[in-house]
Amino acid sequence: MVNDRPKAPTKTPAKAPAMRRQPKQTRSQERVHHILDVAEQLFIESGYEQATTREIASRAGVAIGSLYQFFPDKAAIVRALANRYFAQEYQMFVQLHAELAEAELTTYVDRMIDAFAQFADDHPGYRAVLRQLLDQMTVADASVPNEYDQLMLEGLAHFLAQRNAGLDRDRSQLIATIVFKAANELLWMAFSRESQERSAVIAETKVLITAYLKTFGI
Span 25-35, mean pLDDT? Predict the structure, then answer.
């Protein structure tokens, strides 16, 4: 990312056109994933504005009509790419969350923050797609978490309640939301920094979240 934004994306799918239909057969699913892979690469190479649906179809080796069977326009492709990322992040969270259920708090926070930062590094199109998604979002869109974020929030809230039986459900959910939003904003900011400063922002994010959670006896 080149420039900071005043607000990081809360990873909510924009009110853009959705996929026309979800592929059910294996062959169709593979075709859709291939189209998304090609679109992601083109967005990285050329930028969203320069890439066209015709170019995506051509490079993917499919007829433009086949692309339009699934995606009405580029906005729908961005939305599908973002949702694919969010599903992958959620699966990563579930696996790591289970692994760290009994871990010391500092270890839990360090590993979680590092995992999400590494995910962005391992997927070069992640930031490009989320930047475009953010451009498509309204203020109302940004205020509502998507289904995967909601599941992660619930998992985190449950983790907090298990660590401190004195926290009721509403309090646990509030703390989880604050942690989730703070981590998301700060990681998004870190992505805009050069390597050394980025590492410093990530380190401070860990300190901030760990200190906050310790105030609740987590």
Answer: 84
Maximum CA extent, the chain: 59
Report if pTM > 0.85: no
Look at residue 188 and tell me if it is in a domain.
yes
* Residues in contact with 71: Cβ distance below 8 Å, sequence separation at least 6, in sequence order: 19, 20, 35, 53, 77, 80
Distance CA 64, CA 195 (A): 40
pLDDT at 16: 46
Answer whether residue 89 is part of any domain: yes
To the nearest 10°, report the CA torsion of 133, 195, 88, 132.
Answer: 10
Closest C-alpha among 21, 44, 125 to residue 82? 125
* Number of domains comprising the chain: 1
Residue 56 near residue 63, CB atoms below 8 Å: no
The CATH code of the domain that includes 134 is: 1.10.357.10
Q: How confident is the model over 76-124, as pLDDT tens digits?
A: 999 999 999 999 999 999 999 999 989 999 999 999 999 999 999 999 8
Expressed as residue numbers, the domain containing 137 is 85-218
Q: Answer yes or no: is pLDDT of 73 > 60.
A: yes
Give a yes or no: residue 74 inside a domain: no
**Rounded to whole angstroms, how far apart are CA atoms 171 and 45?**
45
Q: Count Cβ atoms below 10 Å from residue 197 Cβ, excluding itself.
A: 11
35 part of a folded domain: no
Q: From the CB of residue 189, how many other CB atoms can be counted at a distance below 10 Å?
A: 17
